[in-house]
């Protein structure tokens, strides 16, 4: 039986770095960043503290590890995990009253992360 600890650490590191870089690019695209900043409030008050970036990096590593593990069960399992993850995130945002622009931008990025992880895993293996 395949366990979560059988996933390649090399793949986790490479794909996590790729996803982190893609996130930086995604949120810096003018149309995307303007929509996201408009949804989060006053852009002038936004700071770039280190802690959220560290938490995001840790979450990206764990997320990549999870998706690589689920890929062993096939793309249907990855699809179900993705839909579940996205819907839970959207529900949380809706409960908080998060602006629709932020929900849209963040949701698209989450789906991009899964696709990038699946594609890179296919290429690297």
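^ structure tokens above, recovered residues below v
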């Amino acid at each position: 039986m395949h366990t979560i600890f059988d996933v390649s650490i090399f793949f986790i590191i490479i794909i996590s770095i790729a996803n982190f870089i893609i996130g930086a690019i995604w949120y810096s695209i003018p149309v995307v960043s303007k929509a996201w900043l408009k949804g989060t409030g006053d852009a002038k008050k936004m700071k770039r503290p280190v802690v959220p970036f560290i938490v995001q990096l840790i979450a990206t590593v764990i997320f990549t590890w999870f998706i690589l593990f689920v890929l062993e069960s096939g793309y249907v399992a990855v699809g179900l995990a993705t839909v579940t993850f996205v819907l839970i995130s959207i529900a949380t945002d809706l409960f908080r009253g998060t602006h629709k622009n932020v929900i849209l931008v963040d949701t698209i990025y989450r789906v991009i992360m899964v696709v990038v992880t699946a594609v890179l895993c296919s290429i690297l293996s």
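Residues 17 and 84 are 24 Å apart (CA to CA).
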